[in-house]
Amino acid sequence: MLLTEPLNSFNHQLENLAHTWLAEGAKSFSLWKNDTLLATWPTNNTPTKNGLSARLLINGQTHGQIQLSGLKGSQAHARLQVEAKLLSQLLELEVELDNLTAELIDAQDQLVALYEVTHSARSHLDLNDALWALIREIKRITKAKGSFVLLNVRNRPTVVEQTPSSLTTAATLEYLLQEMSEVNSEMLLHNEDIPGGLPLNTNSLFIIPIPITEKASAVLGVFFNQSTSSLSPHLKLVRAIAEYAGSQIENALLHEDLVDQARIRTELEVAARIQVQLLPSDPPQVSGLDLAAGSRPALEVGGDFYDFIYHADNPFTFILGDVSGKGMSAALLMAISRTVLRSKTKSSPTPEPDIILSFANEEMYDDFTEVGMFATVFVGQYNKEQSQLTFANAGHSPVIYCPAGGEAMILEADGPAIGILPTSLSKSHKLPFHTDDLLVITTDGFNEARNYKGEMFGYDKLCQLLKSAATKSAREISDILFEAINSFGFDHPQDDDQTLIVIKGK
Amino acid sequence: MELNSRSVADGKITILEISGRIDAYEVKPVKEWLTEITKISDPNILVNLSNVNFIDSTGLAALVQGMKHCRQRGGNLRLYGLQQPVQTIFELTRLDMAFEIFVQEDEAINAFVN
């Protein structure tokens, strides 16, 4: 075959050689491949393989011979061999040209095919759409009988897309996936290689891994119904597409992640808005008190909360709590804690702080235990007639009391946080509260605020700051405290939620 | 933060040595270790906090959860060697009422043995 095609392009040269030999007395000049006569001059003669002959070699291998009859002698033989050598060189060049042309056509085919796949997939950002476009184009470009792709993304069920839709069974796909996870390189499978065999009208299946990130793996399969020998260019194409498909799938996965992130972000924003609404927008007007409060979560939502309850004839009650942890889990428990504390305060005829805490602990102990969290809670009440605060503290710190003109002191809790022990140990305590006396309850986001050196703001600084600001209004004191931890930790991200209530006698 | 564990009292007590900060960013390995170790029955855990310089509420929550799991399964989780700042945190949050806290390791071991 190799010799017959180039022969056409050398027909003219061969004919010239033949006529030269015939003019010099040769009876015939002929061209052979093995025992097959390819051409002869004069054309009406039937030559035999007797006489002088010289081999035509392409890259060292015999691909035919030229034969001369009717002439003898070493001179004629030598000349024939030189001519054969020249012809061989021409043939080699011709074969090389053919190969280069074939490679060029292949490369061109691949470029066109890749362009088509890219073009088709570019408009499909959705993962399933992108996979579907990929296998549809492969089937079309390679004239395959069918094609499928299996995609495994960590923690997700395997995605299968195939065309036609019912070409392979789930069992076959599972088998192939198993094989692929062991072999992890391309395979050309035939009917006998697959349990249950190949689908009708197909005789081979080419499967190849698609390189993706370590988070995901994919396998591409193409069913052919062509002889194995003619598959080569198609397989080359499928390899090129598989290489490209990896980045296409990565893009689609990335797009999915971005969509997911956008959705979560939107939900968080909604949650943050709801959480802000759970906190009182402004402190109530309470005769004898100047009040301020504020909260700043470290993330979108947080576990800190405060509440002011001024209900019916009950004393004015203020609550500040801090659920351990941060983010959504803390925020959910914050909402529950706030509701339980609020409803107990409102529904009880005599809502003593220690009773409120005890009730809340009983209500929420199991839930907190279940999720391994707890909430420190401070509950205080103001009695104007007696100029007195009554409070109970479940593990909350810092609570700072600064009597007018006196030193700031930390009021320590007498029981652990809600959710730690099955029974609350916190008792109610009384505290005189006159004009210009100050009580500040913050969450640990204040005293534990850090600067870039990792140093903490600390209790001492907090107490000093309060003492120096004690003559100012509750709102001003709140602003001073927030400003102080802002400038202290400006070069360090906020680690924890920061919440406070400032209460001043007036 | 670093975690190491060793067994004492013929394998009846496991000591968890923690060093560094235990906060929201570093608490995960502590939680995982405690979740794993408290799956056995009668888990007796001693946590050595002598190399811990700070613990925040997430760190405290992890220890509380470990302590609850131990008690639910017939064992206990005790602490020893608290540095002053950590001791203060336990006192201010009154977690010293929930945990049994010891100064020395041998006292803590004796509490289990007796």
Topology:
The complex is a heterodimer of chains A (506) and B (114).
Chain A (H helix, E strand, L loop, with lengths): L3 H20 L4 E6 L2 E6 L10 E7 L2 E9 L4 H49 L4 H15 L4 E8 L5 E5 L6 H14 L3 E3 L14 E7 L5 E9 L7 H47 L10 E8 L7 E6 L6 E8 L3 H21 L5 H19 L3 E9 L4 E7 L4 E4 L6 E2 L18 E4 L5 E5 L1 H4 L10 H12 L4 H15 L9 E8 L1
Antiparallel strand pairs in A: 1-2, 1-4, 3-4, 5-6, 5-9, 7-8, 8-9, 10-19, 11-12, 12-13, 13-14, 14-17, 15-16, 15-18, 18-19
Helix pairs in contact in A: 2-3, 2-5, 3-5, 6-7, 9-10
Chain B lengths: L1 E7 L4 E10 L5 H10 L6 E12 L1 H16 L3 E5 L3 H9 L8 E2 L2 H9 L1
Parallel strand pairs in B: 2-3, 3-4, 4-5
Antiparallel strand pairs in B: 1-2
Helix pairs in contact in B: 1-2
What does this structure look like?
The complex is a heterodimer of chains A (506) and B (114). By secondary structure, chain A is α+β, with helices and mostly antiparallel strands. Chain A has three domains: 4-105, no CATH class; 123-257, Beta-Lactamase, CATH 3.30.450.40; 279-505, Phosphatase 2c, domain 1 (4-Layer Sandwich), CATH 3.60.40.10. In chain A, 43% of the residues lie in helices and 24% in strands. Chain A has helices at 4-23, 74-122, 127-141, 170-183, 232-278, 327-347, 353-371, 444-447, 458-469, 474-488; strands at 28-33, 36-41, 52-58, 61-69, 146-153, 159-163, 187-189, 204-210, 216-224, 289-296, 304-309, 316-323, 375-383, 388-394, 399-402, 409-410, 429-432, 438-442, 498-505. In chain A, the strands form four sheets. In chain A, strands 6-5-9-8-7 form a five-stranded antiparallel beta sheet, with helices on both faces. In chain A, strands 10-19-18-15-16 form a five-stranded antiparallel beta sheet. In chain A, strand 3 (52-58) and strand 4 (61-69) form a beta hairpin. Chain A starts with a helix and ends with a strand. Chain B has one domain: STAS domain (Transcription Regulator spoIIAA), CATH 3.30.750.24. Chain B has helices spanning 28-37, 57-72, 84-92, 105-113, and strands at 2-8, 13-22, 44-55, 76-80, 101-102. Chain B is globular and about 30 Å long. The termini of chain B are far apart. Chains A and B meet through loops of A and helix 2 of B.
